[in-house]
Amino acid sequence: MKKTTLYLFALCIFPAISCKKSNSGGNSNVAASSYVSSAISTSSQQQIIDSFRYDSNHRLDSFMITIYDTTSGSAQYNSQTLQFIYVGANTYPSYYNAYDSALGNTNGDYHLLSYDAQNRIAKDTSLSGSGYVAYYTYPRNNLASTILWEGTLQDNLIDTLYMANGNIGTEVIYNAQIPGQPDVQQGDVNFSYAPTANPCYHAAIANSIGPLLFIASINGNGDFVDFNSKNAYEEASGTQQGGPNIAFKYTLANDSKGRLSRVTGAAAGLSGTIVYNYY
Predict the structure, then answer these.
(1) What is the CATH number of the domain that holds 270?
(2) How confident is the model at residue 57 (pLDDT cuts 50, 70, 90)?
(3) Closest CA relative to residue 153, chosen from 173, 194, 182, 122
């Protein structure tokens, strides 16, 4: 079973803000013409680096999550890379190769991507024989993801993003704590937003594979990134099974060009920052 639960606490401390632009004033035009090279989340015992590369047509070429962690008492390192493959001039990828060199997976796991009539991701199928398959649907313009880690309902994740005014209003997560047992709600998070534009929104990316990138981020433990909201959120609150209720507020700062450059969050004795770097 993949690492998909109990991530909510980290998500709400370190929100790397959705890679989408704002439609409500602020710095949306600047954000739309800027490309983020990395978002770096730092806390007292962990640093997570999300790195982005684009091709000459500004299509997402690769998304890499790198983690440095000392919470166990010793230094730990891990990484996950998604390398996207495009056919012709399509703005959406047809395949991607996922690999984790830190765990010895240097050959990668190729995935076939399928889309609906609006060129939104509909299905992600592993071609390696692992059985992994993910289904994406859009009920009432919300984003629903059903992940079958080994191809069966015995071990799955159901993640639903309820959208409001172009932003994630609420996220709800279900899965089975024990494979084969009924799914139970693992947690939920509610967000409120600032007028600040998210720093790396580009419509062709977000509208086609935004939900896929969100799930990849969760699975790679780099889940402070939200790829599906228009604005930068400034408050987050929610619950998680077996844990305390959570509530955080964030301070946002822009660079000299008006782009979001730094997010700071602190609550309950915890603190962290996210720094954005641009090409």
Answers:
(1) 2.40.160
(2) very high
(3) 182
For residue 23, what is the DSSP state? S
pTM, rounded to two decimals: 0.85
Q: How confident is the model at residue 192 (pLDDT cuts 50, 70, 90)?
A: very high
249 lies in some domain: yes
Q: Are 31 and 14 in contact (CB under 8 A)?
A: no
Does some domain include residue 238? yes
CA torsion, points 266, 66, 187, 70, in degrees to nearest 10?
-60
Question: C-alpha angle with apex 163: 160 to 169, nearest 5 degrees?
Answer: 90
Q: What local confidence, expressed as pLDDT, does residue 223 receive? A: 58
pLDDT value of position 105 = 65
- High-pLDDT (> 70) share of the chain, %: 85
Number of domains in the chain: 1
d(CA 105, CA 166) in angstroms, rounded, equals 37
Residue 247 domain boundaries? 8-52+120-278
- How far apart are the C-alpha atoms of 275 and 266, rounded to whole Å? 15
95: in domain: no
Query: Which residues 6+ apart lie within 8 Å of 33 measured at CB?
Result: none
Q: Is beta strand 246-254 parallel, antiparallel or unpaired with respect to 60-69?
A: unpaired
Longest dimension (CA), the chain: 53
Domain membership of residue 96 (yes or no) is no
Tokens of residue 195, six digits: 């007028």
